[in-house]
Design a protein that fits this description.
With 749 residues, this protein is an alpha+beta fold. The strands form 5 sheets. Strands 2, 3, 8, 9, 11, 14, 18 and 19 form an 8-stranded antiparallel beta sheet that branches. The protein is elongated.
Length: 749
């Protein structure tokens, strides 16, 4: 070999395999919640693939998969796309665009040889991704990812600090830069994470809060060929099958008189939109334009939470009201509030204002900063004649009139007249008219289906459904009944929203999904107001959860998710005050016990209660301190547990065989052992560094001065000496020649 010094790139050297793997895992853990929430499945898959390629190929072979300039071009293109997507609102939630940009930066960085600076950028990207995940993810995936990130991130951060210190002591010396192994690193990480977690939980629970909690965002599936809530109904278009969409839309918890109730047999109708005008020429429904003028924008009352919709309900008792605690999943600045009919009060801290339409009792809220809101709406359990009269007064004491659709086929009108004549029903009897149409559409003559392949484009949609196909989904059934009622002079309107949901027996709440989106009919009956009629036969949305162990497990997962969304993500000032009130009650003397009659005995009794409560707190605190002391002081934890937990991780030669290296210049031996491992040589536990060097020298045919490595190690590690520049260059040449020899062996095989 030539005696000249080879051109050694100013590089941090091939990093420790454990550090490279853990840094890659850290990015994946941080990206998982936001990737799943945003639907960035392809980007997430590419991130996983690039992280695997980084560990398996780039770090092991010390070679880049792509040129460096391609990394710069790719990162620049990702930044340009993020700016274009944000400025043109191509993505519903802006944070999704930001997360995609961070993930692409990590993808390109994974595919090149990485300096210490590159790894620093990767760790920064991981921290930014976990912050974005905290903002956008409302699922239980985030708390699981956060717990892993705290432990793994702390551990990787300490290792990265070692790399920085090594670079500071030996800048630019590629063969000498590494970090030492510390046996107490695992227990130190656990202690640091434990203390930080306790401090964070205390700050989260007790720090003063103003207004709502910092809710995240999530996005469901979108598109016209899948089930889901729509504020308009349009027939025609695509002719394929409508696919069921099982994305979560909202969570609903029902209470009556303060007691939770519900079950699979109870399927509430949650109204979102009302449509009264049918346009047969376009095959679509639209709302009443004059309802815009019959609306008011409600501002919050003095308690900064309540919106009163009906004046008589302001001071009325809520024992017979249906309380609906709803947490929406999809974000939006302006969105309908789903509720059973008729809503009388809305309580929430997430809205700036609520728009209430008198005629339809439709609610539209303006959310704060586009947050995903949660709210509680109260509705009357049943409509009494007095309430019906008050609702009528809110509409100007004018009863709704039937809006007969124009240009509807005469065959549809004749069809409705024939049904009433056959049943002998008087048109003035609105209940009988509605029941006649309802029973007819629910008869065996009609069938529910999501197929649309047999639609006749030459016929008006309602005419085609009633007289030809007699098969369709809920929008066809509800539209047909509404049109027939209007044609015979009965006021009716089409309502869209959600019906029921998957009932969670564990948490006693409903998970309402997009396949629970439904359409039904409301018919106006004097002294009863608007009455619900559902002409759709049994439909697929009613049974979206199969029985068995999967449903049982899903109930617990759904309960944890509901608890996380309502009590962690939605933790606000009101929940904090409620928690503090319960703590004060717990600490205060018991009031339900029977105290002695004398004043002295009563005071002693109260102080005895306080002392017992103080003992409870002391014991609980002592247990926490004891656990932390065991974690810190236990030698089994210090020496065995952290490494046993990480034993499954692949380790390089330096990790498996290197000695503890307190001096930065001695870390060249880690590189030597790693290269030898790739030659198929592993240092035995009973081998000295010099004996192992002799073994490696024999493998190379004695052509390399490998023994110089062992001599230098003895000088630096045991003799506490220093390597002069000439000897450092010599060792660097030996390592470079050994790499060339290894590459030659690999090419021959």
């Amino acid at each position: 070999m030539s005696g000249t010094t080879p051109d050694v790139r100013q590089h941090a050297g091939p990093p420790h395999d454990r550090f490279a793997l853990l840094a890659s895992l850290l990015v994946l853990v941080a990206a998982a919640p936001v990737g799943l929430a945003a639907g960035l499945y392809v980007t997430l898959a590419l991130l996983i693939a690039s992280a695997g390629a980084s560990v398996v190929w780039v770090e092991r072979h010390d070679r880049s998969l792509i040129p460096t300039w391609m990394t710069h071009v790719g990162a620049t293109a990702a930044a340009v796309w993020a700016m274009v997507a944000y400025s043109n609102q191509l993505v519903v939630v802006p944070e999704f665009t930001l997360a995609g940009f961070f993930m692409w930066v990590a993808i390109f960085k994974f595919m090149i040889r990485k300096t210490t600076r590159d790894y620093g950028l990767i760790l920064v990207v991981a921290m930014l991704l976990i912050v974005v995940s905290a903002r956008v993810s409302v699922t239980v995936v985030f708390p699981l990812a956060l717990a892993i990130f705290l432990v793994l991130g702390t551990y990787v951060g300490i290792l990265f600090h070692f790399r920085l210190e090594s670079d500071r002591h030996a800048p630019g010396r590629g063969g000498f830069v590494a970090y030492p192994r510390h046996r107490g690193l695992g227990s130190s990480t656990l202690l640091l994470v434990s203390c930080s977690t306790i401090a964070a939980v205390v700050a989260f629970l007790f720090a003063p809060r103003v207004g709502a909690g910092a809710l995240g965002h999530a996005r469901g599936m979108r598109g016209s060929a899948i089930t889901g809530f729509q504020d308009t109904v349009v027939f025609g278009g695509m002719r394929d099958r409508i696919q069921n969409n099982y994305a979560l839309a909202l969570r609903l918890k029902l209470r009556r008189g303060g007691t939770a109730y519900g079950g699979p047999e109870i399927q509430p109708y949650l109204r979102g939109q009302t449509l009264e005008i049918y346009q047969p020429d376009h095959g679509r429904w639209q709302w009443r334009h004059d309802s815009i003028g019959m609306a008011r924008s409600l501002q919050k009352e003095s308690d900064d939470r309540t919106f009163h919709l009906i004046e008589s309900a302001r001071n009325a008792a809520s024992d017979n009201w249906i309380e609906q605690e709803i947490t929406l999943v999809a974000p939006g600045q302006r969105q309908p509030l789903f509720a059973t009919y008729p809503p009388v009060r809305v309580v929430s801290n997430d809205f700036e204002s609520v728009r209430h339409e008198f005629h339809t009792h439709r609610l539209i809220a303006r959310s704060r900063h586009g947050r995903t809101p949660s709210y509680t709406v109260y509705s009357q359990d049943r409509i009494t004649p007095d309430l019906a009269l008050e609702l009528l007064g809110g509409r100007g004491n004018a009863e709704p009139r039937a809006r007969s659709p124009r240009h509807v086929s005469s065959r549809v009108r004749d069809y409705a007249d024939a049904l009433l004549a056959e049943a002998g029903v008087d048109r003035t009897d609105r209940v009988a008219v509605a029941d006649t149409f309802l029973n007819h559409l629910r008869s065996s003559k009609f069938a529910y289906t999501l197929e649309r392949s047999d639609v006749n484009p030459d016929l008006e949609p309602i005419e085609d459904f009633l007289l030809s196909r007699q098969r369709g989904h809920c929008e066809y059934f509800a539209s047909a009944m509404t049109v027939m009622c209007q044609l015979v002079g009965v006021p009716a309107r089409l309502v869209t929203g959600y019906r029921g949901g998957d009932y969670n027996e564990v948490g006693r709440f409903y998970e309402v999904r997009e396949n629970h989106a439904h359409s039904w009919v409301e018919v106006y009956i004097p002294e009863q107001d608007w009455v619900i009629y559902d002409p759709t036969p049994a439909w697929a949305g009613m049974n979206s959860v199969a029985p068995g162990w999967a449903a049982w497990l899903g109930s617990y997962v759904g309960y944890w998710q509901f608890t996380w969304a309502n009590h962690v993500i939605g933790y606000d000032a009101d929940q904090q005050e409620s928690m503090l009130h319960r703590i004060r009650q717990w600490l205060s003397p018991a009031t339900d016990a029977e105290p002695p009659e004398t004043s002295t005995a009563s005071r002693r009794f109260a102080w005895g209660q306080r002392i017992r409560q103080l003992i409870k707190w002391t014991v609980a605190l002592a247990l926490v301190v004891a656990v932390m002391v065991l974690v810190v002081r236990s030698r089994a934890v210090q020496l065995r547990l952290p490494w046993r937990l990480l034993r499954w991780l692949p380790r390089s030669a330096a990790a498996a065989d290197a000695v503890d290296v307190p001096h930065p210049e001695a870390t060249f031996y880690d590189d030597f052992v790693r290269i030898a491992r790739r030659l198929g040589l592993r240092r035995a536990p009973d081998q000295t560094p010099r004996e192992f060097a002799v073994q490696v020298a024999r493998q190379t045919g004695g052509r390399l001065a490998v023994r110089e490595i062992a001599d230098a190690l003895y000088l630096v590690e045991y003799g506490r000496g220093r390597l002069d520049p000439a000897r450092q260059d010599a060792i660097r040449n030996v390592l470079a020649e050994l790499r060339v020899f290894r590459s030659g062996r690999e090419s021959e095989t």
